[in-house]
Amino acid sequence: WPDFLPRAAVQHRDHADPELATHLHGFVGYVSQAGDGQMTQPRYHLMRHVQRVRQHFTFEVDDAAFGELAQWAEQANAVCFLADGSVRDPHGRVLISQGEPAIDEQAQVPYPPDALQRRAQQ
What we know:
This is DUF4272 domain-containing protein. By secondary structure, the chain is α+β, with helices and mostly antiparallel strands. The protein has one domain (7-121). 39% of the residues lie in helices and 12% in strands. It is built from 4 helices and 5 strands.
């Protein structure tokens, strides 16, 4: 469990929770319609990433803990949905937004190391 997250302040769902699939279905819809709604390769990859989620956490974190959050998110292969309506990669770069903040061209949907290795071998 990450040190920066107090257990009492975290809501957690995993694949055993029947509500997770419903939540993720709605979130895929959100991602598909956010901003201009145009299907792009990054949007498609984010949608597929969300469809494969096995665990979902809801929490608030102090700005001072962003470095720890980024490190955890990278290890967990996680994206973050922020209060401003943006979806961000583990480094805080904007993958999808409602227009503001602007999408960051450097943002990347996270992949586990073995998936990146398979991709490089193709």
